[in-house]
Design brief:
Length: about 200
């Protein structure tokens, strides 16, 4: 597998990626914002996308955008060739796009919205936490991107406070993942027995 920052030369793949977005939305039956090939190509040309290949064939893509004077950066548009899903490509792309976000915008809050359980799991592993939409950007430019999603009316009915997507946020570069230790229930049981 080859994963790298996309370049202007990768614009040749933009139409195929956009077709995958449409097919994925139909297959999953959930809302996925429509993307145009020209827009995807601009993300590639600006170095704001990660592209993946498996055995020399296009395997997937994801890109970043900034909002609110670069205080928020969204990791958006993750797509993987349906024929090779569940093989780790999506996770590798998400890791790379997260690292791209951290390197280009080290102080920004990183976020995404998704209906995909797999993406939620990957985001959680990267340190994101689920949040209400009020914790995300208020940029009109971001939310107008939802207009092509079939669930847009739900979002607007709820005054952009909630939808079928889950908002996920990586808030600070200093955040450390917390290691939780489960209590030793056997030891607790022995203490209780000896006290009675």
């Amino acid at each position: 597998m080859t994963i790298r920052v996309a370049t202007a030369a990768d614009a040749q793949y933009a139409e195929q990626l956009c077709q995958w977005y449409v097919e994925s939305a139909k297959t999953r039956g959930t809302g996925i914002a429509k993307r145009e090939p020209a827009y995807v190509a601009t993300k590639m040309a600006s170095g704001d996308g990660i592209i993946a290949f498996v055995d020399g064939e296009l395997a997937g893509f994801c890109y970043i955008e900034t909002f609110d004077d670069k205080t928020f950066v969204v990791n958006s548009g993750l797509i993987v060739n349906a024929e090779i899903r569940k093989g780790g490509v999506g996770k590798a792309i998400k890791q790379a796009v997260f690292e791209l976000s951290r390197s280009k915008y080290p102080q920004a809050k990183i976020f995404g919205i998704t209906t995909s359980l797999a993406v939620m799991k990957i985001n959680t592993d990267l340190g994101y936490e689920p949040v209400t939409f009020s914790e995300l950007t208020t940029s009109e430019d971001f939310w107008k991107g939802c207009k092509s999603c079939k669930n847009y009316s739900i979002l607007m009915e709820n005054e952009r406070k909630l939808c079928l997507c889950t908002g996920m946020l990586y808030d600070t570069p200093e955040k450390q993942l917390v290691q939780l230790q489960a209590p030793d229930f056997a030891a607790l049981d022995q203490k209780t027995e000896s006290a009675s």
